[in-house]
Structures are given as structure tokens and as C-alpha cells.
Amino acid sequence: MNTIMRKSVLGIAGLAFAGGLAAGPLQHATTPTVESTVPAAVAVQADKPGVDKAKLIPHGVQGEQSRIDLDGEQTANVRAIVAATKKAGMDERAAVISIGTSLQESKLENLGHLGDRNDHDSQGLFQQRPSSGWGTVEQITDPEYSTLAFLKGLKQVDGWQDMPLTKAAQTVQVSAYPDHYAQWEQQAADLVAEHWNS
Fold it and tell me: What is the per-residue pLDDT for 38?
């Protein structure tokens, strides 16, 4: 449970406890405690099972981490990556690698051709190139297609599940800046934890 949620639950539990004391006489046998109200709050979350956070970053993060605020389009792209990962039959770790890669490549924006600012003909969430066989422009600018294409490449990397994010991403992407993927691992893991079961 995240810190804000925990504080909210404990605050509500405290108000309920204080309200009970103010509303009637204190009866020792039925006096609620904070500990007894926390399981009830957790039960409310039972319809949305949590993600095993140990699976998201099995090796810990490498180096200093970056973070950006996401707008509605970027959040929709996160959801599209998560949905495509599930469609591919892959787990949360694959989604972390995919989202971390897209954070580095496009800041989760589905980029079209940027003229002089383009890296050759790179486009889409993963900056895939039609000239390198990733698909047509229409395909690689489709979030589901581009994610499935990235995941197809990831599946071909022996031992990707046991690699740090930056090594797994680099093996698929073959970037000129292979270490840059690492900085997005924590935000990618947080996004998967937030959206995997939503």
C-alpha cells in the first residue's frame, strides 16, 4: 500500500475510532484499535490484487533515477503497453522493461517523423525504424503493434528475465546510448504496479 493510501486509511481509521468514543460510552471489549481497522481497509483492496514488487526490479535500480510527469496520452500509452504485454503472455517484468525502454526512447509519446530531429527514420513509442524491419510507419506508430514487436525481440534474448533492464533493452534496441535505459527503471516499475491490475 503506498504511503498516501496508508496515511489516508490510518486517518480514516483514527476518525472512526474518535467518532466512536465521542458518540457513546467506551466499552473495553468492543473498542476498535488501529490494528483492527487496517485489515478491513486492506479487504477493500482485495478486488485489485497487488503486484509482487520483487518481480518488477529483481536486481535493484542501477544509477541515478529520472522521473517525468505523465499527461493523459502518455498514461494511455502505459496502459497500451501493459495490455500488449499481457496479450503476448508475458509478465510484469517484461512490462517494466518495455515501459522503461519507451520512457528513454520517446518519453512514452507516440512520435511521428520529427524531420531533422529524427534519428534516421525512427518513430513511435520505441523509436523503431521501418528501414530496420520493425514494420511500416503505420504499424510502428500503433502502440499495441510496436509493443508486441519490441516484446517479440525481447523474447529472443536468452535470459532477459535475469538481466538488468538496461542490458535487456539494449539487446533489443541496439542504441548508441545503451546505459541510458537504466535511469527509468523505478518509474517504469511504479507505473506497472499502478496499471497492471487496473
Answer: 34
What pLDDT score does 106 carry?
Answer: 94
Q: Round to whole Å and give the CA distance between 68 and 136.
A: 29
Q: Return the SS3 of 136.
A: coil
Helix axes 185-195, 72-87, angle to 10 degrees: 80
93 to 57, 160, 185, 196: CA distances (angstroms) = 7, 10, 10, 11
All cell numbers assigned to 94: 517484461
- Give SS3 for 123: strand
The amino acid occupying position 138 is: E
The answer to whether the Cα torsion of 68, 190, 95, 63 is positive or negative is positive
Q: Phi first, then psi: what are they for 132, rounded to 5°? A: -100, 5
Phi, psi of 123 (to 5 degrees): -150, 165
Nearest 10 degrees: Cα torsion 72, 146, 180, 103: 10
For residue 26, the SS3 value is coil
Q: Is the whole-model pTM more than 0.85?
A: no
Residue 177 amino acid letter: Y
